[in-house]
Amino acid sequence: MAINPVAWLAALDRLPPGFERHAVPVDRARRAAAAALLARMDPGPADLFPWGLEAAHRLWEPWAQARFQVEAAEPGEPGAAVDYILHDVDEGRLTLGLVGGLDGGCPRFGRHACNKLIPMGHENGRETCDYWDWPGMEALTPGLELYPEWQRFDCHKHHPLFQAHLCGVALGRIVKAEVRWVWHGPAGAEKRLQVYAGLTDSPDRFEFKSL
Fold this sequence. Notes:
By secondary structure, the protein is of the alpha/beta class.
C-alpha cells in the first residue's frame, strides 16, 4: 500500500538530528519529493520501506547492519541514505530507490582528508577508507578510480550512488536477495547514472526514471 506523505514527513521531522549517520536524507526538498513519489507508488507484491524504515523493523535492522559492515571505519561521517527500499521476499529481490539531485560528494575528500590524497602531500590522520577497505569493493566497481593527478575522483563524484551501491550489495547478502537500484532524478541525470553504472560489474542493475 502507498504511504501517507504528510504523516511520514512529520515522523521524519521527529527523528533526532543526524539519525543513524544521516540514514534519512536531511534535505527537506528531497524528502518531500520522495514522499510525493511514494504516495503514488504501487509496490505490487513487494514490501515498501520508506527511507528503509518500518514500524516492525523487519528490514531496518538488516539495513543498519549492512551500512555498519561497509561503513564501520567512518562512524563520524554521513553514511548511505536511500529514499525507499522495496523487498520482494518471494522473488528474492531488493530495489533501492534514490530521489532527487543527489548532490554532495565525499566529505573526507572535500576536507582533503582522503587517504588517496596522502601521496599528493596532504596530511591525513587516517590512512584507510571504509569503502576502499571493504572486501569486494574493487570487484564490484572495477572501473572506479581516484587519482588526483589524473583528475579522476569517481567515488567522490558519484558518492551517494557509490554508498547506496555498496551498502545495497551488503544488504542483499544479508537477506539473500538480488539487488537493483533506481534513481528518480531530474532531467540530465540519466547520463550521470549511466556513467556510474559503467564503472560497476553489473551496469544492467541500475535504472533511471525521470522525476
